[in-house]
Specification:
It holds the Pfam family DUF4559. This protein is mainly alpha-helical. It has one domain. The chain has a three-stranded antiparallel beta sheet. Helix 1 runs antiparallel to helix 10 and helix 3 packs across helix 8. The longest helix is centred in the middle third of the chain and has 39 residues.
């Protein structure tokens, strides 16, 4: 399914005219084309009467111009979303398996008194220190204990909620997006930062640089001032996502 959608993006998409809207296709001086959607004012009489005082300030129509470059950008963003959905089942299983291994190794027995001390003055109980040391050893660029405390609730690690609390350590700033205990609530940046930064995930993907390249494509899209992509930029993004689909280790 994902490969089929990607092929559609590469082939281009048709202009669709929706009922009730006037869609005009125009050409620019540089030869590129864009679509203009013209929408009119509300035809509700009561609405017009209620807003009669400001009616003169409202334009009779609003033009939304969707350039070819903006369409390219939208294709790239959708391709990145598909990439996140594609790896989500593998990531969900991996995150839970890592947590189970840590539970079996270190146990869950942290006293409420130790948790209270940790939250109050940062005194790390010996059990949690063992958890932190292991998690740091999995990280490509291990963060400090202080940094870990800022981005995750370490006291939840031994609990059933611990799997995705641990996962946040590998997500850079992406950890802020997640609100649930699965990958569906984390964005592209969070998911692929996890894959790239967690060294133990390398056994599940043939080329770890694919994750880094997807992050580069994501940053290029999110930091585009006008939300536009040239043809080469779009092709670069689609090729990177395509390489993810073709990763034999990830498929297995």
């Amino acid at each position: 399914m994902y490969e089929k959608i990607l092929r559609i993006f590469k082939q281009g998409c048709r202009q669709v005219q929706k009922h009730g809207r006037n869609v005009k296709k125009t050409s620019r001086k540089d030869g590129s084309q864009c679509s203009t959607v013209v929408t009119g004012q509300s035809s509700n009489p009561s609405c017009s009467q209620d807003k009669s005082d400001i009616q003169d300030t409202i334009p009779r129509s609003v033009h939304y111009t969707i350039s070819h470059q903006t369409q390219n950008w939208l294709k790239a963003v959708l391709a990145l979303r598909i990439a996140r959905e594609y790896v989500s089942p593998v990531l969900d299983e991996f995150v839970q398996d890592m947590h189970q291994e840590l539970v079996q190794k270190h146990g869950r027995n942290v006293s409420l008194n130790q948790i209270a001390q940790f939250r109050e003055n940062g005194e790390v109980p010996s059990l949690l220190r063992a958890w932190i040391n292991d998690v740091r050893s999995f990280h490509r660029t291990p963060p400090s204990t202080g940094a870990i405390r800022r981005i995750t609730d370490v006291t939840k690690w031994p609990t059933r909620e611990g799997a995705w609390e641990i996962a946040r350590v590998f997500m850079a700033q992406g950890f802020r997006t997640g609100s649930e205990n699965d990958s569906a609530s984390f964005d592209v940046s969070a998911v692929f930062n996890y894959i790239y930064r967690c060294r133990t995930f390398e056994g599940h993907i043939e080329d770890i640089n694919i994750a880094r390249n997807i992050l580069k494509a994501r940053n290029m899209a999110m930091h585009s001032p006008m939300s536009e992509f040239t043809e080469p930029q779009l092709q670069t993004c689609l090729d990177v996502v395509d390489s993810l689909f073709n990763d034999e280790t990830l498929k297995s």
